[in-house]
Design brief:
Elements (H helix, E strand, L loop, with lengths): L1 E8 L8 E8 L4 E5 L6 H8 L7 E6 L2 E2 L5 H6 L1 E5 L10 H5 L1 H5 L4 H14 L16 H13 L5 E5 L7 H18 L2 E6 L2 H7 L2 E6 L2 E6 L1 H6 L4 H7 L3 H5 L14 E3 L11 E4 L5 E5 L7 E2 L4 E2 L6 H9 L5 E6 L4 E7 H31 L22
Helix pairs in contact: 5-6, 6-7, 12-13
The chain binds adenosine-5'-diphosphate (ADP) and magnesium ion.
């Protein structure tokens, strides 16, 4: 766990870039700090590996103040990834990835083995090892940057807007890669971005920053459901209710059956008929107006892995108002959910949210009523009545 306690950092005489910032960053999770440009994100990140030192307050790592830990040691245990990978242009991919192991004087066989391992982990073809950064796509450069950050197997990975230079499709791939790596390698990741969607996708915890301080931190679903201030509400923007459905699992939905056929020409019924291919995968709906024709399938969802948001989209994009569920690696037809059943599930999800909201409010009240530090000795005495001594 990394803990910021009332940290302030100024550059010269300017107003502080970071001001009285407190934040708990849990170990083995991804924390995303998100906020508009200039709000102090990079300054915050750079204090974690002591590239910058705070002017006031303290940062602790597993309880130890950072300024009691050696900078070299610290940077060995914290990988750093920046936009476009921040690669050395005159070094090959392999040499870039090997940067930290070289500094640590690993022998060349160990380094070569580690480079191969990391290229595989970040899904980079081995054939790229001898290329220079300019000969790579933006997405590949970024993968090399991630591989380099992980080279010495650090406990913590610090990422400064790592994906802002790539297009949305490549970006989504990189986000999935890092999510997967986090689960597989169990790192503590602190990532910063100015993109709220990225924060929501990546973060176990999202911390929203404004003018050098954290205005709200918590699980993304909680922030979408209960923005703490007008700034957060505005920053999140529209669609927060709809986006919140992305955190509700589709697993509980009741699947029903529809008629299916493998030959659309033969179906003659008023009811919707789903067309399946030879392997049982849905391909479209029988078009009642056009013998032998099919209507677009719409999107589908997998109840085992997808959210209510994806399921609702499947229903809304279906020409017959039914979300088609698929299952297994082959994505075979598994059943359908009607819009009505989906809206019932959405309503239940709303009730769950209201319950969590009430629980959080109760927690806050308890925290206010009971100070965290136990108070010793008799408390304040009202009206001169001395409390009875307990036996
Ligand atoms: P962000 O990463 O959120 O865009 P930064 O942490 O880079 O924000 O910057 C926060 C504030 O500190 C900005 O006002 C910026 O101009 C200022 N700042 C950043 N680095 C320096 C520096 N080296 N010298 C002076 N001011 C700086
Ligand atoms: Mg920055």
């Amino acid at each position: 766990m990394i803990e910021f306690a009332h940290v302030t950092k100024s550059y010269g005489r300017d107003a502080p870039a970071v001001s009285d910032l407190s934040l708990v960053i849990p170990a083995h999770r991804t924390t995303v700090i998100v906020g508009p440009s200039g709000c102090g994100k990079t300054t915050t990140l750079r204090m974690i590996n002591r590239m910058l030192e705070p002017n006031a307050g303290e940062i602790r790592w597993d309880g130890r103040p950072l300024n009691t830990l050696g900078k070299t040691e610290l940077r060995r245990s914290m990988g750093y990834v920046i936009q476009s990978g921040g690669l050395f242009p005159h070094r090959t991919v392999a040499a870039n990835i090997a940067t930290v192991p070289r500094l640590l004087h690993w022998d060349s066989r160990r380094i070569a083995g580690r480079v191969r391992e990391l290229m595989e982990l970040t899904e980079l073809p081995e054939s790229l090892a001898d290329r220079y950064p300019a000969e790579l796509s933006g997405g590949q450069q970024q993968r090399v940057g991630v591989a380099r950050g992980l080279a010495a197997d650090p406990d913590v990975l610090l990422m400064d807007e790592p994906f802002s230079a790539v297009d949305p499709v490549v970006r989504a791939g990189l986000q999935d890669l890092v999510r997967g790596l986090q689960r597989e390698l169990d790192k503590t990741i602190v990532m910063i971005t100015h993109d709220l969607d990225e924060a929501i996708r990546m973060g176990d915890q999202v911390a929203i920053m404004k003018d050098g301080a954290i205005v709200q931190a918590g699980p993304p679903a909680e922030i979408l459901d209960e923005p703490a201030t007008d700034f957060v509400r505005e920053f999140i923007g529209r669609d927060r209710g709809y986006r919140g459905l992305g955190f509700a699992a589709a697993a509980g939905l009741r699947l029903t059956a529809v008629d299916t056929t493998r030959a659309p020409g033969t179906a003659t019924t008023e009811r919707p008929v789903l067309v399946l291919d030879a392997r049982g995968r849905p391909v479209g709906w029988v078009d009642p107006r056009l013998p032998g024709g099919t209507m677009d399938l719409g999107t589908v969802f997998d109840p085992a892995t997808d959210s209510l948001r994806v399921a609702l989209d499947a229903a809304l994009s279906s020409p017959v108002g039914r979300a088609v569920a698929v299952a297994g690696p082959a994505a075979r037809y598994a059943g359908v959910v009607t819009i009505a059943d989906l809206l019932t599930a959405v309503a239940t999800h709303r009730d769950d949210l209201a319950e969590s909201r009430a629980e959080r409010a109760a927690h806050r009240e308890v925290a206010v009523a009971e100070p965290a530090e136990p108070v010793s000795g008799p408390g304040p005495v009202d009206d001169g009545v001395v409390p009875e001594a307990s036996s």
